[in-house]
């Protein structure tokens, strides 16, 4: 084990300030989604304490306290649930806890397994009917946050031999086929909405999203992770190659547009992209990690080297980093450090060294020399809130792996589709 980075003190202090659910400001704890939201509520904070307890850095009493909050209301299922809310969110948190404490939470997990699998199959039926009609999908049908890619990450851990995960994989394979819409041949993940998932006058012809949170990089990661686990359906390898080729088409050095619009398709004008943050949700970090996972699944050293090189370059690009303005797991420095560390573990020796160096620099950015971790933690909680995805809990969690030089004890980052 390497010597812990000083950024670990910031992670520890955040966890200490989030020890008692009763101390969370009412402005957060009174929100309707607080008890069931992995992104913005109690399950995400529970995830921080689960990982810390599993790694010997915190007590299990805090885990029980936060899981009690998450389980204190009837769990949402059906169309209103997804990886980051409701039954799949609680299933992810409990799975992480059960991995560290074998035999725990089995009754609750058995119930959630049935609920999540049943909802996944119904979603697949709806997606398959939509494909048969020739309609274009919604982002929430297939993405990581709200769609099949995210729900598939839960099934991949809980029931890798079940029919539901194979159904999800098959559905995502069908998503990658081209579709014709108003005389235009479009990728099957083209949606008529804006990136928010709602109709948007700025996107009159819709768009194809590249990101890992809301775009095609999410299904790519799930297809690759499933293949690495031995789950393969007809056309899966071709589907992975299709997405990889599409991403390569729009690549600009070590950067990708956040989305492709009809304007991109209309002509050959390919102006260099303006500097943009290389984040997990949108940007090079999420996309290249998905590419790396695909390369590992396909046993393609050339593809792997290209993805790792692009990630290593993006993470030290001064202009890209200047566009990164916070510490969050979703789109900040802590999330980038975590992905760099994860990618380094799977990289070729040369790229692994580059990625570890990048992770160290990113950690220095999260916790500069002589910074007061208590002051930092309190400021972060006041400015960003306690949330997992874009707040303090996720920052603390994302810092743990690169700061200690270890792998996550609970595989918590499965909810990011980075492992």
Order of helices and strands: HHHHHHHHHEEEHHEHHHHHHHH
Q: Which strand order does the major sheet show? A: 1-2
Helical percentage: 55-70%
Span between N and C termini? 21 Å
**Rounded mean pLDDT score:** 95
Keywords:
two-stranded antiparallel ribbon; 55% helix; 4 strands; 2% strand; 419 residues; single chain; 19 helices; mainly alpha
In short, what is this structure?
The protein is an all-alpha fold and 419 residues long. It is 55% helix and 2% strand. A hairpin with a 2-residue loop joins strand 1 and strand 2.
How would you sum up this structure, described in words?
The chain has 419 residues and is mainly alpha-helical. Helix content is 55%, strand content 2%. It is built from 19 helices and 4 strands. The strands form 2 sheets. Strands 1-2 form a two-stranded antiparallel sheet. Strand 1 (179-181) and strand 2 (184-186) form a beta hairpin. It starts with 6 loop residues before the first helix and ends in a 15-residue tail after the last helix.
List the helices and strands and how they pair.
Layout: H1 7-17, H2 26-29, H3 42-54, H4 60-70, H5 87-100, H6 106-133, H7 139-142, H8 148-158, H9 163-175, E1 179-181, E2 184-186, E3 208-209, H10 217-228, H11 236-250, E4 259-260, H12 262-266, H13 284-298, H14 301-314, H15 318-322, H16 333-346, H17 349-366, H18 373-384, H19 392-404
Antiparallel strand pairs: 1-2, 3-4
Helix pairs in contact: 1-18, 1-19, 3-4, 3-5, 3-19, 5-6, 5-8, 6-8, 6-9, 8-9, 8-10, 9-11, 10-11, 10-13, 13-14, 13-16, 14-17, 16-17, 16-19
